[in-house]
Each structure stands twice: as structure tokens, then as C-alpha cells.
């Protein structure tokens, strides 16, 4: 039996060969869970508070251009037309074939129940806990989902680097793999490592895999493409026994020069979704749902540095062959000042947990009562908006 590749064991041995680990600036740990049903679910946490108004632009709202000022988009400013009211940020233009195929959609004006303080830490905690109040539980909503389903199996654990996905933390066993390692070994150090590990086949194999996943060889990780490595790794697992994958994409906290600082995060998101589709292949992609969620939205008006500050209502992204895409879901509240939350933020008209709840219900068959009472305690799922095919 192959022994698990643990952080403690890795650090103990790496001290002999001078390895160094460096955290990725883009991504946190990826968590995976195997389960007996056939559909696949990918949950992406967009850490930093994505500006939904800049991503899915409501250019058809009569107050949009005035409210957004220099950040106003729309087809006339290079955005991709969606439905005559909303347009898509140009940096996500490569995803338009998914929209045309009905494999990309959005839900606008959504938020967790978290309000007013607008702390990233609190916002992410309540997003991953899936509760209506802070500190109500210690585990994550995806983990609670697994505790209610039969036949969930443990995968071999890989813990390399830093970060955690609280969304999958809890009593149910899941596997972890972290792409946050730059082994940064010279050819001489790699040869020394090979000699040292010759008599330890289990660690030799694990080290070789870690080296490959960290960047494909001796030169270390390509941090600029780390999101693609994560997407490919997740997709490869989902092609096998894994049914749920959760990971993060950072870089959404755009307090200044948003017209430039938002673009890299959007390009990483687009690349991630495209990589997932391509690596999964048509058959598995056809039964996959991807949901990308963020802790809260951003202010409607821009600030003095050309960015936006922490807000409330935002948008979530849906993708995959199992998604009924080609639509922007949700009830639009309007952007006139009287319609804004505290006269500064997009007013949430739906709980961000509700679309996720309907995806869980459709993909796994878990009954509504269990979802509302255990997975997302305090949630009223409302009506089924038809997010799945």
C-alpha cells in the first residue's frame, strides 16, 4: 500500500536536499471528494469579492452608465453581447462559445446573508460554511453534503504547501492536493534527491509526482499558469472516481485601477473553465456543473483611485454541459440610488446559496429538506429556476 505524501514527511526529507516551498499568488488548495453518483460538481471560490457589475454588465439599465462612470461597459465599449440587457466583460470573451452552446450562465444580484461589515475573512467564512450567520458551524457546506450521501470514499491525501478549503472541511473524508509548491531544484539537487530516495520507493514516487505537478520538472512551478495546472488536475480526477472538486482563484479585490487590475483574474477564470472543459472531454463535461462564487460584490460607484470598494450584491458564474446556460438568471433590482443597498451597493434579490442548493438537489438527488436543514441551514431554496438541463 502506498503511504500518503504528507507535509510533515515532505518537509523532513526536503531538509536533506534543500527544497524550498513557495505559496502561489493565485490559488489555494484544491480539495476533491469521490462519490457514487455520476454527475460532477466543481465549486470555485473567487476570493477577494468579484465585481459582478463589471463582469456581467447591465448596460440596459437606464442608470448604469451614470452609476458606473469610467467603468461603464456594454457592447459599445467592447463587451460581448449576451441578451440585449447584459453584456460580458471583454476579458471573458473567449467563453462566448460556451454561452452560445448553452453551457455558460450567470446569476445576478445574489449575496450570502452576510451584511454591512464587508470583511473578506467573515464573508469567505460564511460563504464556505453555507450558513446564515457567522460562527454557526465549523464545517463547510460541501462536507455536510457528503455526510448525507451514501458511499462516499476517501482518496489518498496530498498536503503540500499552505491554504485550506473550508468549504470541504468537516467530518466526511475528502482528499487534498495543493499546487502551491515551487520545488526549485537544480539538476544537481534533483540527482541527489534521486539517490537519497532510491531505497524509499513510496516517497520516491510521491516526490516525482509532486515535482511534476509543481511545474513539470527541475525548473520549478510556472506560477503564471498555476490555475491551468489546478484545472487540469481537477479534471483528471473528475474523469475517474472523483465527483466533487473545490478550489479558489484569487485576485478579485480591485480597489484601484480596476479597468486593468480585474483583467488578470478574469483571464484566469476563463482559462480555468476552458481547461476544465477540454481536459474533461465532451462525455464528462456533459454531466458537469461548475459554479463560481464570491464572498460579496463591490460598490456601484467607483472610488477616487478608479476602483471599487467592498459591497454586497454580486454575481455567480455557472458553466458545464449539465448547466442550462445562455441565460442571466435572477431578479434585477435596478441601479437608481433608491434601489441600492444602503444607497451604495447592488441590492441582493436572492441568496447565493439557493442556486447552489438546486444544483446539489439535481446532481445528487439529495432531498430538499436535507439541503435546507443540514447543508444550508436557514435557507429557503424558493422555486427551481431551472439551472440544470
From TrEMBL:
<keyword id="KW-0732">Signal</keyword>
<feature type="signal peptide">
    <location>
        <begin position="1"/>
        <end position="23"/>
    </location>
</feature>
<dbReference type="InterPro" id="IPR006311">
    <property type="entry name" value="TAT_signal"/>
</dbReference>
<dbReference type="InterPro" id="IPR010869">
    <property type="entry name" value="DUF1501"/>
</dbReference>
<protein>
    <recommendedName>
        <fullName>Twin-arginine translocation pathway signal</fullName>
    </recommendedName>
</protein>
<dbReference type="Pfam" id="PF07394">
    <property type="entry name" value="DUF1501"/>
</dbReference>
